[in-house]
Amino acid sequence: MTNFLQYILAGISIGSIYALIAIGYTMVYGILRLINFAHGDIFMMAAYFMIFAMVDFMIPWYISMFIMIIATIVLGVLIEKIAYKPLRTAPRMSIMISAIGVSYLLQNLATYLFSALPKQYPSIPILNTTVHFGEASTSLVTILTPIICVGCVFGLLALVKYTKVGMAMRAVSKDFETAQLMGIQINNIISLTFVIGCGLAAVGSILYFTPRPSVFPLAGSLPGLKCFVAAVFGGIGSIPGAVVGGFVVGMCETFMKAVGLSEFSDVFTFVLLIIVLMFRPTGLFGEKMAEKV
Amino acid sequence: MLKIENVHVYYGGIHALRGINMDVEDGAIISLIGANGAGKSTTLKSIMSLVNKTEGTITFNGKDITKMGTRDIVKEGIVLCPEGRRVFPDLTVAENLIMGSYLRKDKEGIKKDTEWVYELFPRMKEREWQLAGTLSGGEQQMLAVGRALMAKPKLLMLDEPSLGLAPLVIKDIFSIIKQIRESGVNVLLIEQNAKAALEISDFAYVMETGVVTMSGKGKDLLNDERVQKAYLGE
Fold first, then answer.
1. B134 to chain A: which residues are within 8 Å by CB?
2. Which end of chain A is more exposed for a tag (fewer CB within 10 A), N or C?
3. Chain B contact for A292 (CB, 8 A cutoff)
4. Chain A residues with CB inside 8 Å of B91's CB?
5. Chain A within 8 Å of B50 (Cβ-Cβ)?
6. A80 three-class SS
7. Structural domain of residue B219, as residue ranges?
8. For B100, which of A174, A180, A182 is closest by C-beta distance?
9. Quick count: other Cβ atoms within 10 Å of Cβ B123?
């Protein structure tokens, strides 16, 4: 029973991190119809930014956190401006190939700059405090993760639903040209999408790497792919879908490990992708293809 | 108020506009008629800077807007209600109207104009919270016109507002265009339905393959033999 509770906690925790990252995939897809394959690597770079700030510059963790989030956002927006914006009118395949290119570029850049050797992720003392729940015990970060995640998701949903800029995001995601005719600046809205997606990935990276020993240049690629699966499972383009998808993938993975099938937990995630693509390609909350014209 | 001089537009190798000249006067409904592919929509898009002009100048109330971006042109008071309605399907009716007023900051004015739009189109008031994608074609067209009005245009450009609508609905739309004109908004209208357009227009231009071939008072063109033959099917 205690173990069960512990697995549930772990599942919820990793699930909410996946949810934060999956939102980045789903929002960029919603606006640009692009799978941003570099998203997982942006998440990895965020971890290196944190190491830089805390270890190399000895900045206290609460300030480092802000610096790291800003740096990640700047990186994401720059990638959009340099690698995606010039291809806006190009066929969709070109921009996707560009995204794959950016992904490899970031991995290799990280290898070149920080070496392929794993680097220790700086520990944030408060987050590692142990908390007891009856007989189950866990670190504070495991408890905080879902709370932070839920807070971010509700904030984001409110932004998209109730603010003018959120409406503009929804308008742009449907129809670039007409949105322009309203006086909306498409490029600003797209940048904003990258700001939100990368900001959430940065928050996710703190929560993901804190309980893990080290960071290495490929550390973002597997979590990135899993979150992509989560986004597809929930219905790519839908924010609530990405959240549900993130939790499902996180939970399944944790329980696979719990029953002693650790080595298959990643396999399972991709089997899930294949099943979704076969039986319900639009995902749980995905938009239907047919629209009244 | 709007002056178009020698505008050329190319789509790849296709020379879509071959030196358009038009002069839209203040206080009138002006219509632009012509067959499919004559360049009517392209003319409006080139005014809005949605397509690139290779040559020519466009001035609005004496101000050169040739090189302005779409956003600044909307700010100047030119608003295009695009062909095929193009409402935002998963925004509600109310949200679509808010998008129309995107660049405005005057809360009072926006509120007043929303009421005005609901007065023009009572059906929109009833469906305020409905997603625009669930409206019928005619309702979507009304919403598209209402949304364009929310930007407080000095010149409202309507691209084929009657496209694909039932005759009764078309009648409604045209009577509302007249009401809009009476409220002091200038209207530039594109229509396939040449007869209906010429009847309510003060002035009209006829386009053929990228050039303006004829222009004159609406009533004169209505009686013109060439126009009757080509567009009115008489």
1. 292
2. N
3. yes
4. 167, 170-171
5. yes
6. helix
7. 2-84+154-232
8. A182
9. 16
CB–CB contact B103 A183 (8 Å): yes
Domain ranges of chain A: 21-220
Residue B65 forms contact with A (CB below 8 Å): no
Give me the CATH number covering residue B212: 3.40.50.300
The predicted model gives A270-277 an average pLDDT of 91
Determine, for residues B74 and A182 on separate chains, whether the beta-carbon distance falls below 8 Å. yes
Give tens-digit pLDDT for A10-28.
899 999 999 999 999 999 9
The residues facing B190 across adjacent strands are: B32, B159
How far B100 CA lies from chain A's nearest CA (Å)?
A: 6
Q: Checking DSSP bridges between strand B203-208 and strand B55-60, what pairing results, if any? A: unpaired
User: Per-residue pLDDT tens for B53-83?
Assistant: 999 999 999 999 999 999 999 999 999 999 9
Answer whether residue A130 shows pLDDT above 60: yes
pLDDT over 60 at B140, yes or no: yes
pLDDT band at residue A135 using 50, 70 and 90 as cut-offs: confident
> How far apart are alpha carbons A283 and A248 in whole angstroms?
13
* Mean pLDDT estimate for chain A: 91
- Min CA distance, B128 vs chain A (Å)? 15
**CA A206, CA A202: separation in Å to the nearest integer?**
7
- The alpha carbon torsion through A187, B12, A178, B89 (nearest 10 deg) reads -110
Q: What is the pLDDT of residues B152-207, one digit of tens each?
A: 999 999 999 988 888 888 888 999 999 999 999 999 999 888 888 888 999 999 99
Closest CA to B22 of B48, B3, B38, B1: B3
Number of folded domains that form chain B:
1
Q: Over 50: is that where the pLDDT of B10 sits?
A: yes
Q: What is the mean pLDDT of residues B205-227?
A: 88
Whole-angstrom distance, CA of residue A150 vs CA of residue B155:
47
pLDDT for the residue numbered A65: 93
Which residues lie across from B63 on neighbouring strands?
A: B60
CB pairs under 8 A between A and B: 61
Query: Does some domain include residue B213?
Result: yes
Residues of B in contact with A178 (CB under 8 A): 82, 86, 88
Using the Cα atoms of residue A267, residue A272, residue A278 and residue A283 in order, give the sign of their dihedral: negative
Which residues of chain A lie closer than 8 angstroms to B74, CB-CB?
A: 181-183
